[in-house]
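wait is this the right file?? whatever heres the structure
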């Protein structure tokens, strides 16, 4: 690696990353991917360097590794990107130390913490006058049981990855008081009572999910777009949006901007909302202040957000571009599985499924010039499906 070439280092190598690497490579940017595990991105032809790094859970060891490879691998001055919340936390918390060797694309922790922790996110939204679902943060079981709440409700962690890394789920639904108590007690054992959020369940599944995503400077969108989900996996609490479409909705941009202006946020962000039919309004769910699962749609729609973030970080001219409404992105294998489930449950007809594919949607991760990430992802999906069948542990109540 030559010292005079500025490239990008992406922390994490899941299916989110290959489209980002392709985007940057098209602009002549060399890409280095760091991952503690075998991942889809390491097999991409657009990734020039893959390095096996320590687990992100040991933050101090991970930061020491980043500092070491900056000199050893000639990455001085390269731009650091995060692909999940754990990497985001590290880049933000250790920003002053890392900026001695890298260019950091996320703000300091005193800003990022409001988007990392949903407790702070919802408090920020309330202060800014942005609607959120009815939300409770009981300090213990007694306070929970004393609440006068209707069912169903959602139980989720304040910091998503703390539950996701343990039971591979983002949230759980309780349909009655006994389920609520059982799920709350189990979640308290896993992540502690202070991290458990109880929230009103908003019906609608993926079709009620919307986002505004873009690149922001001091809270104002330099460029961005609104998007609507059609399908997601899992169907109830998504870990992956499998079918996403660009729409024209100024209200989403207005709400997202109002939130991020309140903390003067600069960087990439996806601000996620859910449409509450009962109240006829969008309500804030969460903010991703790093790459997200349908990142490639922004590129397909005409605004190359990964390169825009790189260009701004390195002082280059920002290519604004223009948004193509109606652009679609499909995560092919997972979406076929989700659509099959919905057809089986009577939520979708085969004709409706075919109709959703009109307009030649772009494929997430699948690219004929770069096929290996898609093949590896297919293998991972098969492995996880077989493991899930063998273990039978797909409910929190069974993980005791």
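ok assuming it is, sequence goes like this
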């Amino acid at each position: 690696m030559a010292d005079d070439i500025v490239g990008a280092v992406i922390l994490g190598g899941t299916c989110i990353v290959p489209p980002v690497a392709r985007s940057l490579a098209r602009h002549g940017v060399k890409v280095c991917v760091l991952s503690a595990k075998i991942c889809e991105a390491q097999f991409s032809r657009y990734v020039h360097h893959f390095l096996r790094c320590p687990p992100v859970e040991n933050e101090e060891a991970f930061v020491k590794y980043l500092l070491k490879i900056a000199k050893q691998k000639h990455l001085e001055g390269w731009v650091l990107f995060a692909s999940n919340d754990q990497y985001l936390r590290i880049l933000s918390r250790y920003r002053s130390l890392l900026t001695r060797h890298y260019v950091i694309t996320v703000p300091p922790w005193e800003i990022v913490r409001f988007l990392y922790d949903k407790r702070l996110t919802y408090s920020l939204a309330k202060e800014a006058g942005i609607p959120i679902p009815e939300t409770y943060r009981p300090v213990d079981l007694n306070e929970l049981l004393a609440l006068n709440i209707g069912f169903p409700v959602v139980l989720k962690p304040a910091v998503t990855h703390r539950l996701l890394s343990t039971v591979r789920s983002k949230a759980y639904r309780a349909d009655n008081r006994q389920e609520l108590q059982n799920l709350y007690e189990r979640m308290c054992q896993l992540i502690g009572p202070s991290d458990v959020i109880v929230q009103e369940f908003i019906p609608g599944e993926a079709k009620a999910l919307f986002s505004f995503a873009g690149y922001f400077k001091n809270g104002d969108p330099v460029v961005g777009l609104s998007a609507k989900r059609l399908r997601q996996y899992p169907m109830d609490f998504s870990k992956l949006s499998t079918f996403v479409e660009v729409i024209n909705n100024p209200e989403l941009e207005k709400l997202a901007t109002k939130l991020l202006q309140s903390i003067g946020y600069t960087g990439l962000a996806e601000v996620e909302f859910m449409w509450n039919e009962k109240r006829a309004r969008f309500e804030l769910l969460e903010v991703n202040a790093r790459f997200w699962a349908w990142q490639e749609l922004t590129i397909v729609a005409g605004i190359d957000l990964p390169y825009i973030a790189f260009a701004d970080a390195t002082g280059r001219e920002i290519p604004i571009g223009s948004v193509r409404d109606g652009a679609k992105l499909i995560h092919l294998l997972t979406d076929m599985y989700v659509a099959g489930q919905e057809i089986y449950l009577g939520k979708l007809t085969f004709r409706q499924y075919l109709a959703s594919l009109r307009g030649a949607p772009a494929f997430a991760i699948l690219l004929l010039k770069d096929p290996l990430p898609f093949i590896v992802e297919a293998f991972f999906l098969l492995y996880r499906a077989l493991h899930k069948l063998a273990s039978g542990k797909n409910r929190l109540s069974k993980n005791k």
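The two ends are 49 Å apart (CA to CA). so i think its the right one actually
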